[in-house]
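4.2 Preliminary Data

To establish feasibility before requesting continued support, the project team ran the inverse folding procedure on a target of 456 residues. The structure was first converted into the token representation described in Section 3, and no sequence information of any kind was made available to the design step. The complete token record follows.
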């Protein structure tokens, strides 16, 4: 049987850990957080637990990791299942998300994993590590597709405003999303994916958080400007289990930041589960508040037929929403190079690991392979965006993948650690694994059914 050199194996593992740690921390905008607290030292020269991340910085980073374009679909989700049901579902997702954070934090303390994939490898073995890395690739790829769609849809409205068109008027050919998406992709996004240092784009993540705050405020202001009455039917409509299951991935996506949570907790100054509990609870409350305000006021403005991208329902001549469209467009354009950078690195590492399993050596970070992966990634994401008419469908797929990182993988860690031990922990791990896998499989099957039904 062929065997690897111990030195080669150690070197490959070290390099993989270094790359993945950089990947995770980049998307967390750690370069954007230049607070002096971030570089704090321990008192009396004591050895720190973690390398100096402040609790305030951790809260901001997690908010950035959670909030994004998913807020645009929340009013539609609230409309399909009712405000009361939606609030209950969000509270449920916050609760199970908190438990998953605690599972991951405990595993970091016991196994000293610096990032999500590294932690999976140390707790569950190399196969689980590889599976989590494949999930990471799917997650960032679907986010890349969503970025194209979001940019194109907002560009249509901005183009209508520039062209002086009113809502309902026939578009000129250059205001069509099938024209604007590829043009915007090739002129604004494509040149950015080739950068080798993405630290500059981390500042866009700071802008993204405030863009979401602005969108929430604009939705509330527009509702009161219209002085619309409250429709009691939107509070608790008569819905079955199907709509609830359909929009569960949206709520899962809305609170998924567990990939960022591992390196963030690892870096937290004087880290402890109790200190991190404060970080999680404050972050969850602030995000929950933003989501409730956007979902409720957006639904009250447009009713149950609100668009999956609520910004498309506002007039192209609405000044507040024109700024919101521009802000979310800048946000997704600036975030896209981060997605491709992280995705490309994960694909390259996965290829190297697979070759290692078959006793074949593959040069890490090959320039030729880098170019091929980036080209394939970008044009495949662009093609899917052109074929997909709804942002909601893509966000549901992203949410299904997010459920793996929030539920399945943490549940598997807990199940593995509790073998032969506490049956309560093992049962909790099994429940989390079932919920994560069920949400993922259900969403994939339901989406394929919708596509097949629509095409027929």
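Position-by-position output of the design step:
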């Amino acid at each position: 049987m062929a065997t690897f050199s111990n030195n080669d194996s150690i070197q490959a593992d070290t390099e993989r850990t270094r790359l993945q740690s950089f990947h995770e921390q980049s998307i967390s905008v750690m370069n954007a957080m230049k607070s002096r607290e971030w570089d704090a030292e321990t008192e009396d020269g004591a050895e720190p637990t973690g390398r100096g991340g402040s609790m305030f910085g951790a809260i901001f980073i997690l908010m950035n990791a959670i909030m994004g374009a998913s807020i645009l679909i929340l009013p539609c989700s609230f409309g399909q299942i009712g405000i009361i049901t939606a609030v209950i579902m969000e509270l449920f997702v916050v609760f199970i998300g908190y438990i998953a954070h605690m599972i991951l934090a405990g595993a970091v303390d016991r196994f000293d994993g610096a990032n999500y994939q590294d932690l999976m490898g140390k707790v569950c073995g190399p196969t689980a590590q590889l599976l989590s890395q494949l999930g990471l690739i799917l997650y960032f790829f679907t986010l890349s597709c969503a970025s194209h769609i979001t940019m194109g849809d907002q560009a249509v409205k901005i183009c209508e405003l520039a062209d002086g068109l009113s809502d309902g008027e026939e578009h000129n050919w250059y205001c069509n999303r099938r024209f604007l998406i590829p043009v915007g992709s090739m002129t604004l996004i494509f040149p950015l994916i080739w950068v080798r240092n993405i630290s500059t784009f981390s500042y866009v993540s700071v802008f993204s958080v405030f863009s979401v705050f602005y969108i929430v405020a604009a939705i509330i202001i527009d509702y009161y400007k219209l002085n619309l009455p409250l429709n009691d039917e939107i509070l608790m409509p008569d819905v079955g289990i199907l709509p609830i299951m359909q929009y569960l991935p949206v709520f899962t996506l809305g609170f998924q930041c567990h990939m960022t949570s591992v390196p963030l907790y690892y870096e937290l100054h004087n880290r402890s589960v109790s200190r991190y509990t404060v970080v999680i609870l404050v972050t969850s409350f602030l995000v929950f508040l933003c989501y409730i305000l956007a979902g409720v006021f957006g639904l009250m403005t447009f009713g149950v037929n609100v668009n999956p991208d609520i910004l498309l329902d506002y007039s192209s001549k609405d000044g507040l929403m024109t700024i919101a469209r521009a802000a979310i467009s800048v946000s997704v354009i600036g975030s896209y190079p981060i997605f491709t950078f992280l995705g490309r690195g994960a694909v390259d590492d996965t290829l190297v690991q697979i070759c290692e399993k078959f006793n074949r050596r593959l040069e890490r970070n090959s320039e030729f392979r880098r170019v091929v992966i980036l080209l394939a990634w970008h044009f495949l994401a662009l093609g899917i965006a052109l074929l997909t008419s709804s942002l909601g469908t893509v966000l549901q797929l992203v949410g299904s993948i997010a459920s793996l990182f929030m539920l399945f993988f943490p549940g598997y860690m807990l199940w593995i650690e509790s073998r032969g031990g506490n049956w309560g922990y093992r049962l909790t791990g099994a429940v989390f694994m079932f919920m994560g896998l069920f949400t993922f499989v259900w969403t994939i099957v339901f989406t394929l059914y919708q596509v097949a039904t629509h095409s027929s």
